[in-house]
TrEMBL record:
It comes from the Eukaryota. GO terms for molecular function: ATP binding; protein kinase activity. The keyword Transcription regulation does not apply. The keyword Secreted does not apply. Pfam families: Pkinase. Coiled coil: none annotated. It comes from Nelumbo nucifera (Sacred lotus). PROSITE patterns: PROTEIN_KINASE_DOM, PROTEIN_KINASE_ST. InterPro entries: Kinase-like_dom_sf, Prot_kinase_dom, Ser/Thr_kinase_AS, WAK-like. GO terms for biological process: cell surface receptor signaling pathway. Keywords: ATP-binding, Nucleotide-binding. Residues 1-273 form the Protein kinase domain. This is Protein kinase domain-containing protein.
């Protein structure tokens, strides 16, 4: 396998490589060689080796004996959901409401699989639009399991150092350092807000009350101003039942008390039902 190009990603670097079959593959390389980074890579291998789901990125191989650890993944051609929503600095992409809703359903299904089908269950720990990849058909692939945790069957929560991305991190987790499946639910709620509003989940460039879009979205819902914050593409592409249904679901996921949030399985069922509601 030989390196051909280096593409910047958030937590690591992906290099396109080729096997003798000429199939393009991304290589995830640590930015630096340290014990913490290597531990995260090994953790990702352990997690991904347990998974087999159409909406979870596939790990094809790894090499930890090189100076810089390398993980080899299936090549996902359309990049991240983050860039499809917000653009890549050079162009603004159009992502239809139908695609957004389907991506939400696929992502929810993958997270429900992690929480309920694993033995033991798995908490992703860093759900965000940057960690949702899209293939040729815009099928969602949940990725980056460096912060993920296996949950012993007799435990509901895990005590950890707080990891994640600001704006997506469960506030309850930040306060207690107790990571649970409901932490992923909160983060998924933030992704729903991105899909609905087309806004980055956090930005210092916005007025104070709008810097954290998840909080502003919940406030807008309480003030019955949902349709003031929706992106035009979403407003024109979705029907009232769908938009209100997804918005209500996002609000439930973003509740500050984790016990009041739905499970990912409940979320997945609800989003899947909403994908079937196209009449006005």
């Amino acid at each position: 396998m030989r390196a051909e190009s280096l593409v910047k990603e958030v937590m690591a670097r992906f290099t396109k490589g080729r096997y003798q079959t000429r199939e393009i593959l991304p290589l995830k390389k640590s930015k630096e060689t340290n014990k913490i980074q290597v531990k995260e890579f090994i953790n990702e291998i352990v997690i991904l080796a347990r998974l087999n789901h159409e909406n979870v990125v596939k790990l094809l191989g790894c090499c930890l004996e090189t100076p810089v650890p390398i993980l080899v993944y299936e090549f996902i051609t359309r990049g991240t959901l983050f860039h499809r929503i917000h653009g890549d600095g050079r162009q603004k992409f159009v992502l239809s409401w139908e695609d957004r809703l389907r991506i939400a359903a696929e992502t929810a299904g993958a997270l429900a699989y992690l929480h309920s089908a694993g033995d033991p269950p798995i908490i992703h720990g860093d759900v965000k639009s940057m960690n949702i990849l899209l293939d040729d058909k815009f099928t969602a692939k949940v990725s980056d399991f460096g912060a993920s945790r296996l949950v012993p069957l007799n435990q509901m929560q895990l005590s950890t150092l707080v990891q994640g991305t600001f704006g997506y991190i469960d506030p309850e987790y930040m306060q207690t350092r107790q990571l649970s499946d409901k932490s992923d639910v909160y983060s998924f709620g933030a992704v729903l807000v991105e899909l609905l509003t087309g806004k980055k989940i956090y930005s210092d460039d916005r007025p104070e009350e709008r810097k954290n879009m998840a909080k502003y979205f919940v406030l807008s819902m309480k003030q019955n101003r949902l349709f003031d914050v929706l992106e035009d593409e979403v407003m024109h592409g979705g029907n009232h039942t769908q938009l209100q249904g997804v918005a209500n679901l996002a609000e439930q996921c973003l509740r500050l008390n984790g016990e009041e949030r739905p499970t990912m399985r409940e979320v997945a069922v609800e989003v899947r039902l909403l994908t079937r509601t196209w009449s006005w």
